[in-house]
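Quick question: who can interpret this fold?

. . .
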Amino acid sequence: MSELSTREKLLHAALDLFSQKGYDATGVDEIAESIGMSGPIIYKYFKGKEDLLNSIHTISDNPYDEQMGFNTPFPIWIHNGEELKQFTMHQIQFTINNETIIKLRKLCTIEQFRNKYITFEATDHQFDKIVNQYTDIFKGMIEHGAVEEMDPKVLSLEFTGPTAMLIQLSDREPSRRQEAIDMIEKHVDFFIKTHCKK
């Protein structure tokens, strides 16, 4: 892995502190000092603290979208319950274990009601992208006779809702991470047994 640029180091430092203390409680000097630099260095790379906050997504968007399958052209062809489980558990293992993604979710939890940009990002990543992705997956599965015929968005909400709740549990209590993963797998198995025809 290549060495991080100063800009990337500042973004990671800001994410660390924002996800622990919140945006308002974190100072520019504190961010720079946490990586052994002085506060004014931030203004060489960012317009200010708000620009730093709004740029944090650049250190995670590409790997996140790739690992979660958001870069895959739709429709994603999943033909049966086994493929659905394999795809889903790959997503879960990535999102529940990736420290950068965990910190981003914590940041969103802290700031989602105070910052309009973070409100949008939280809704986009934690609801819209996931629900739309699985709505498309279930549309395809219904068309191929792999899932009972019903509203694919309702299926998506039924499938993703408990998973989101268990990911939040893991973020709050990391000691329960494996418990959350095991419960997600049981939920996926139950969903497949209940709704999948093959």
User: Anything to note?
Assistant: The two ends are 41 Å apart (CA to CA). Residues 132 and 153 are 8 Å apart (CA to CA).
